[in-house]
Design goal:
0% strand; single chain
């Protein structure tokens, strides 16, 4: 498991430095090392699935990212690994936003919230960043959540998260559609994330200055 953890860490570093092909190669090597006979995935295997979801998001393979997220959620729930479940749910929400499925995105982020994702320090910045993506119908709310994510990462000294976000600047095609129907649907389905934002204004003031 030590080697697997080291490879997963290297894969995450490659994502942060935009070396996506190298990341995919490392993850493929890691997948070959994992024992598929075991009924429960060890932590390095579950962690590497989260890393692969992040890679797939960077490669704009939204539906594949969602599929891997579903597997990661199922495996993590078997061993009550709340952190991995929350991370996979948030990344699934991100994939669904990019795929133009805001209802599914909102459901995923609400599930992550119910599991206490906002209380996990290492995932708090990602929580707000995903909320900002769901809140695209409201430019003001989106900007507020985006800035919260950045402030949290800076306070935590999480340079990698900021760099990863800066490398993924391309807008997903799902939000390049014209016409009112899509935007009306998104506005309606972004309400859960907007409600969460209002609630956290009262409980996380230290991060919202």
């Amino acid at each position: 498991e030590v080697r697997q953890s080291a490879l997963d860490g290297l894969a995450r570093l490659y994502i942060a430095t935009n070396r996506l092909h190298d990341c995919e190669q490392v993850l493929d090597t890691l997948a070959g090392l994992q024992n598929r006979v075991r009924s429960e995935m060890p932590f390095p295997a579950r962690s590497s699935m989260v890393t692969r979801i992040r890679l797939l998001l960077r490669l704009k393979r939204w539906h594949e990212a969602s599929r891997i997220a579903d597997i990661a959620i199922e495996e993590a729930r078997k061993v009550a690994d709340r952190k991995t479940v929350c991370a996979a749910l948030m990344l699934r929400a991100q994939a669904m936003v990019y795929a133009g499925q805001p209802i599914e995105a909102a459901r995923s982020i609400i599930q992550a919230n119910e599991l206490g994702a906002w209380s996990l320090r290492e995932h708090l910045g990602m929580f707000w960043e995903v909320c900002s993506q769901i809140q695209r119908a409201s430019r003001e709310l989106q900007q507020q959540s985006h800035e919260r994510a950045r402030r949290i990462w800076r306070e935590q000294g999480n340079v990698g998260a900021e760099k990863e976000l800066e490398s993924a600047t391309a807008e997903p095609k799902a939000f390049e559609r014209s016409g009112g129907a899509f935007h009306v649907e998104l506005r309606s389905d972004s309400r859960p994330a907007s409600s969460l934002a209002s609630a956290f204004d009262l409980s996380h003031d230290a991060y919202l200055l």
